[in-house]
Design a protein that fits this description.
By secondary structure, the chain is an alpha/beta fold. The protein has 23 helices and 31 strands. The structure holds 5'-O-[(S)-butoxy(hydroxy)phosphoryl]adenosine.
Length: 687
Amino acid sequence: MSNSDSFSVTLKENRRFEVPPAFAAQANVKAEERARLVEIGRKDPEGYWASVARELKWRKPFTRVLEWNAPFAKWFVDGRLNASENCLDRHLEKDGDKTAILWEGEPGGESVRWTYKELHARVVAQTAALRKLGLKKGDTVAIYMPLVPEGVVAMLACARGGFPHTVVFGGFSAESLKDRMHDAGAKAVLTADYGWRKGVKVALRDQVVKALTGGNPGATGGTSTVKHVLTLKRESVGGAGRAPAEALLGKIGTADEYDWYAVANTVEPSKRAVLGAAEEVEAEHPLYILYTSGTTGKPKGIVHSTGGYLAGVTRTTRDVFDLKPSDLYWCTADIGWVTGHSYVVYGPLSLGASVFLYEGAPTTPGADRFWDMIERHKITVLYTAPTAIRAFMKLGTEWPKKHDLSSLRLLGSVGEPINPEAWMWYRDVIGDGKCPIVDTYWQTETGAIVISPLPGAVATKPGSATLPLPGYDVDVLDKEGKSVPLGQGGRLVIRKPWPSMARTVHGDPERFKKTYFSEFKDGIYFTGDGARRDEDGYVWILGRVDDVLNVSGHRLGTMEIESSLVAHPKVAEAAVVGRPDELKGQAVVAFVSLKAEFAKALKESGGQDQAAAKALKDELRAHVAKEIGSFARPEDVRFADGLPKTRSGKIMRRLLRELATSGEVKGDTTTLEDLNVIAALKAGDEE
Ligand code: WT7
């Protein structure tokens, strides 16, 4: 199903669900309150966001709210604070014994429960260890870890020391890890020997070794900035077992490798509090850099601030997820994605919530793993992705039906447009028809949720993220920058700055400007998404209008995959497009033209569908998986004699998308696809 298909289905259905009265009665934001906030947000957005930010703990309160030198924003400029202090210390007095994190490993029987006091102590110890190794405010630290509680400790320990972190999702290859560490100038990397996924050990440290030594552990040269590696042993997750007496494990390239727990033990307990104290940083101090795909071959390091970011995520967590002190909240995202940053770690912990974490795959050991955990732990709020919901739908209702899911009171969705069928299934089967659904639209760049129902105040429609949250000036524009009338499609923009917006692209402010602020003038932020508003002003996201794919809720740049393909010695040219996919949203299809000698050999061996061609397709698919990560592996590779181009030499992507989708043009299998014939016919269309 394509985004536009789901849209038309939705329009036909046009169902609407009012807020359940019982939910509304207890909601953090009721209808009148929402109306009031929306009004303040419209009349005085700076005043609105200042009141939001005042709910944080400031070491030095801000007096200036916004400095806007479009497209560069500074919020709460003269204020000073620390993100980890907001997520930990400020809860200790009242909620020190409350559960901060409840974690389950993928293998059965493994769990960790840490109170706020315990999480605080571990973060302090790790900050102290990092400082002892010589890290200073402003030094960047890479985190490449499985979803274990220490992953959260890693992020908060960096935040505590004022070390901007860059978390690299564990599914990324050594190559991608290396590029990101290099671009960010990471001084240290925090990793683990392995994590569990689908019953298999995923060796992360091995990738770190490859990234730092090019696969040659004896190598010492290289330009790596990484001086320290902290490795967590998977067996010692949660602090189990005894840390080795010797903290220093050896060398990886030119970096020293330390045992995660042993290195923390090198700081005497009496010195921990001082060495692990929270660094007071300015509101604009970068909290983290997170790499995300764009329309060029090189991922962008999105930079987020401390004060503005924290204000945005704290408020949206409270309002959108309606969190209460008694909730056990579960966002299924990995800490390697922005959802993990904003809605696993910083938002919920800053609110003092109890957060559930699960390491592994949804169907290990059985197809009911999620539902089993929800029942056992009485999880109350679940936030997951449409691709997961569709996969569960396919597995059948018998799996959730085996469990008592009555603890759930709110369901959330994020990452891609949710098709109404999946929305209805989520509502009826998982939520038993009683839980409101919040379809939350946002991006790595927005830092926090932008469009979403407030569950106690806004009626929902399956497939629509509904209305912008208070404080955001969202609009849908035509190419000339004029607002389009309701019912008409256009480009989704945010007209005014907001506190949790990205501050820049690390090391490349020009790219920041060009990517997000050049489509329209006057500091209007362009999301890259198409959207339409219905007669009630509800926003329906139509998907990306740029060359960015959304595969299982993960963003992939077509150019990124193309650059990886052309780096293969047999490839002359490559064009990558998305094909609608029932489960993943989009699947990656690569059109490849080979260098002459290989193309000739392939033709002689019988063409596109013969064994030799199939082997080469697999080789290319594996190549991309190795270069970027397995989630970028093309679903399909098609060989073509040449790629279809317009007369001005632009690859005709729309044509390729059509071909990938319909599968119509197979060509003569004894030759390779002659796309140029079709291109010649269609050339007029795309120029
Ligand atoms: C892109 C951002 C936001 C965290 C996860 C993805 C798409 C995201 C929705 C939604 C329709 C959505 C957009 C957006 N997207 N949420 N609720 N409905 N589309 O973050 O990797 O930065 O991707 O995901 O296309 O631009 P990301």
